[in-house]
Amino acid sequence: MRSGINPDSKLDNNNIDTSDNPMFEDSENQISWIRRRDWHILSSGAQLYTNDERFAILHTPGSNMWTLQIKFVQRRDHGMYECQVSTPTGIISHFVNLQVVVPEAFILGSGELHVDMGSTINLVCIIEKSPTPPQYVYWQKNDRLINYYDSRRDISIETTPGPRTQSRLIIREPQISDSGNYTCSASNTEPASIYVFVSKGDNMAAISRRKTSSADRLAAIFMHVVAPCILVNTLVMRHIYLT
């Protein structure tokens, strides 16, 4: 028997070509598809035995090609499928392992980005594990598309398709109003998000100074109060031990 696909398939439809075996040309042979995960008989001949409308049997009368088609493949569709041929001399089976590849999107960096007004926002979105590069990568700010609605000349989007598609969103000289939740996604991925905070440079410096001052005060308290107490306690313990 010859198979029209690799036994470890990553496709969303699977074909079994039985043309190499003369007994399959007999119209009395019954072709069935079985999902081995739950032993569900999906079809027998052209008759489907599932309420899931994503499944279909494709067969041209007179041909020896029987295709199990699964539209809009989901994670739960992964696993082993069996094409079973009932013949007068017994049953012949061919197995197909369907691997469902789920594309992923993520934005480089942590979940937050802090930038100063007048600098540059540079966000990079990576989409990987996609069987084919996505046609479009969508950028949104607070659930509003950036790609199409924004005519600002200081915003640009550069997308390089490939096994790891990369899309870069660049906003030059951002303002406070550019703060918000930014997401990127393709048609077959869940969105990835990052929150961008745009602040005035003086405010950022003041925050940094406040953090430094607080740290200095804590260090001073430790040196003038806590450290002497530790030293006194240590000397007392040594005195008790020696006496």
From TrEMBL:
One of its GO terms (biological process) is synapse organization. It comes from the Eukaryota. Gene3D superfamilies: Immunoglobulins (2.60.40.10). CDD domains: Ig. Residues 1-24 are annotated as: Disordered. The chain crosses the membrane at residues 218-241. GO terms for cellular component: neuron projection membrane. Residues 12-21 have a biased composition (Polar residues). Residues 30-93, 103-195 form the Ig-like domain. The keyword Transmembrane helix applies. Keywords: Membrane, Transmembrane, Transmembrane helix. InterPro entries: Ig-like_dom, Ig-like_dom_sf, Ig-like_fold, Ig_sub, Ig_sub2, Zig-8. SMART domains: IG, IGc2. This is Ig-like domain-containing protein. It comes from Glossina palpalis gambiensis. The lineage of its organism: Eukaryota, Metazoa, Ecdysozoa, Arthropoda, Hexapoda.
